[in-house]
Amino acid sequence: MTTAHPNPAPLTSRRNSAFSSRLEHATPDQQDEIERLARTFEVSDDKLKTIVKGFAEEMSAGLRAHDQSCDLKMIPSWVTGYPSGNEKGVYLALEISGMDIYVCQVKLKGERGKLAINQYQYKIPDNLTAGEDMSILVDYVADCVSDFLVRVGTQDLFVYPMAVSVGFAVKQTGLNKGTIVALEHGFDYQNGVGCDVVELFHSRFKAKGLAVKVVAMANDTVCTLLAHAYQHPSTRIGIVHSAGTNCAYYEKFSNIKSLENSFKNKNSDDMIINTEWCNFGSHKRWLPNTWFDRKLDRESNNPSIHIFEKMTTGMYLGEIVRNILVYLVDNDKLFAGSSSDGLNTPYSFDTSYMYVIEADDDSEAYKDTCVILEEMLKIGPTTVADREIVQKVCEIVGRRSAMLVGAAIASVVNYMVEHGIGLDDTSDGFAISISGDLYEDYPSFHPRVCETLKALISDDIASKLSVGIVKHSRIVGAAIVAMMAEKMDSDVDMQE
User: Which family is this sequence assigned to (predicted)?
Assistant: First the structure.
């Protein structure tokens, strides 16, 4: 198995080989407490194998039907076929993410995945987050698209195909069909829920006289897969791992029982499936929850769902660490039993602190860790032993997170191999594309994921896999989705 972070190189390190719970500066009582914590968060080989088995069962169950008892929803993306890297054309992508609008123009040049990108970001004014009619918001979005087209220069007598990715919960019933089921991130429009997203954009773009046609809706994980696949056509899995997490992969039509007799384009045998793996473990069947995980889940704004996400992602890892540190303080094992308003504030320990603390190799003073604890969280003064303990806690939590992600990827890979998807005796292998701030910025995360993945798949499969870390892929990938939509329409026309 190879990795593209930053250059392809063979994986040779052994899983768990670098981890030790031993501390140099701690008292015996502190050492004993850290060893107990390490055992609490340990994911044994047997447990990893159970997770792989359970994940495959949930995948199969989700493909059979959209049953509420399934952890994995296995949502069809309606994107079929594979980019070759030789396609040419100009495509637009639109993304609404939180309070930001991103508009992107991608010029596909072919020649094994060459492309050129123009992108611009717009802010949504606060007064456009709520109201009676959602078309007011879409009118503003249309104005942003219009401004973007002026910036990049438009072509006469040319209608730009566009794919749209929105940060709302959407029930997608076709490549360019879907209704909003929930407005999120502070948006509140009376007629928003139940709205046909694509139709709304079409109507407002037409009213503005824009030469744009929305040809597809796009999930960000599907976009990650396709953005990488245009330049690396062997890509079969796409993963986003940042504040949230998700995975998409190619699946055979014959295995998607929920789509039987409802999809007619059989020019390709495969379709991309959005697993929604953030929800894995939510029925308490597979994941090794600790008391700290259960506390975080109870106190979250969405208890009992997205359990895998709460154990592995940037939104929550820092909070798990904070809860552990508070526990250690309350048991007189840290900071001489003293805390601070900063440490006692939920979500004050940002996950990015873990990146800095784990990378702090100054074992004589842990100066970077000291800055975070004493200047950011106003704890202090702290001892070298305190800082060493905090680093070890970050390592314990971060290591478990990466191991769970590695096990989830291994589950998808093994499932695909067992079902004859993307890897057979004649195949040279396939690529896995991964994007997300946590995955890109947490130095130890990628090696730990790959070590776990390698330990859970056979050597002959590992030798045929590569892992590519891709940046800025989501909005570019949406433009690739627009290209794929146009390609699918062309395939259907040729058949007819």
Answer: Belongs to the hexokinase family.
**What are the angstrom distances between the C-alpha of 365 and each of 214, 356, 378, 444?**
56, 14, 18, 21
Question: How large a percentage of the chain has pLDDT more than 90?
Answer: 60
- Helix 197-207 to helix 135-152 angle (10° resolution) is 60
Spatial distance between the Cα atoms of 205 and 158, rounded to a whole number of angstroms: 15
Is 360 contained in some domain?
no
Q: How many CB atoms are located within 10 Å of the residue 401 CB? A: 28
Question: pTM for the whole thing?
Answer: 0.90
Whether 213 is in a domain gets the answer yes
Burial annotation 230-244 (CB, 10 A radius, 16+ → b, else e): bbbbbbbbbbbbbeb
In this prediction, residue 260 has a pLDDT band, given cuts at 50, 70 and 90, of low
- Find the domain containing 208 and state its range: 83-223+473-485
Q: Assess if residue 67 is contained within a domain.
A: no
Listed in order, strand segments (DSSP E) in 392-444 are 430-435
Residue 194's alpha-carbon distances to 14, 168, 176, 341, in angstroms, are 50, 12, 15, 43
- Per-residue pLDDT of 266-290, as tens digits, reads 567 889 999 999 999 988 889 999 9
> How big is the chain by its Cα radius of gyration, in Å?
24
Looking at residue 133, which CATH number applies to its domain? 3.30.420.40
74 near 62, Cβ under 8 Å?
Answer: yes
Strand partners, 95: 102, 165
For residue 431, what pLDDT is reported? 92
pLDDT tens digits, 164-199: 988 777 878 888 888 888 776 678 888 888 888 889
Looking at residue 156, its pLDDT comes to 67
Residue 334 in any domain: the answer is no
Backbone angles phi, psi at 91, to 5 degrees: -135, 150
Q: pLDDT exceeding 70 applies to what percent of the chain?
A: 90
